[in-house]
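user: Here is a favour to ask of a fellow structure person. I have my own habits and do not want them to colour yours. Could you put it straight underneath, so I can go through it closely?

assistant:
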Amino acid sequence: MQLNQEKQLQYDVTVVGGGPAGMAAAIAASDEGARVCLLEREEKIGGILKQCIHDGFGVLRFSEQLTGPEYAWRYAQELGRRPVDVLTRTFLTSIEKNGSSRDGYLLKIVNSQGLSRLETRTLVMAMGCRERTDRQVFIHGERPAGIFTAGQAQDLINLKGYLPGKRCVILGSGDIGLIMAQRLTLEGASVEGLYEIGSEPSGLNRNVSQCLEDYGIPLHLNSTVLEVQGRKRVEAVTVARMERGIPVQDTVRTVPCDSLILSVGLIPENEMLQSLAPQMDERTRGPRVNQYMETSCPGVFSCGNALHVNDLVDYVSQSGETAGRAAALYASNRSGGDRGGEAELTAAGNLSYVLPQKLRLPAEGAVPLFFRVNKSAPRGKLTVTHEGTVILEKTFRWLKAAEMERLDLDLSVFSGSNGGSVAVRMSEEGS
């Protein structure tokens, strides 16, 4: 297929993904005077928020409890007031470096107008994340009708008006799974139980309370689904309690059901970045970034759930704003000629990861540090050291492995420094 040579588009900032992070990035970049393009593969912008009709969004951002569509609508309205080219039903097929380090990137896109070239000085990658499927959790048995991810079930009910099943079992206790337990119950389905292989729920406490306890839906911890029964349609699942990864034989039982809903984790979408080979973080499964959301590839920024899976959409939008603004400044050569050095952040102790993974120095202001712990603890002491010198200490209570924590780091503590190593350690303390 030949490229449409008449479609030679040129932009300062191109945002890939029209969810909350992408919309926030496009707005922020436009406000900095950049010529901006937003690429979205779906028919409408808004991302996953379009199907999240429950409330709880925007508490930090708007000081209100909004539904997902309401939150997305507010950003879409703001985006519509700016000269941003929004290309929906458009697929990005490839990314190539375009000349020298600051010449930008060449994108190939396809939509109803055909195949086109797009040249951009900077990229903001805001593709969100995807759900793990039954193939990725090694459930035995056939693959009959009636197996859905929690997001698929949510789409069927909230957008298409179909009930995925009348008697359901949910595997995993992620937030979407918890919310779908409530939603299925409200729509008249029977939720036989929710099975979590871990020793505690992986979703937020408020969702456990509001979606399970308020509706009398049983939660089985240290338990999992071993096998799906049925050939054409799910007829039952085999469940068991687990100890050290092995089923306890006298707990194995069959639960009749017609649907299995999976809420077994999210994976950041970063396949399109492979051609550029940025430095990746094994724990977040997103790129390693500095406080401006810039990856190791010059002029490429990452934000939202493509960077790491967030608990709150408010933080997703915040990272999008940071990335969009930084991309616009980079494109106009206003990000600083002398880039100085970088301090490398490492997570230690009871920390799973810390983000950002790098700090560009010298810099002013404060940087929000996001982190998760490996295991829950009643108390923990966070210690930040720079080149062996303690620069910050803070005690946290009721740390949960399922919940992300945030701490603002004042960059004035690095005054006079141009880099070095920064260790962020969480030490468990007694209650």
In short: Residues 366 and 410 are 4 Å apart (CA to CA). The mean pLDDT is 93.
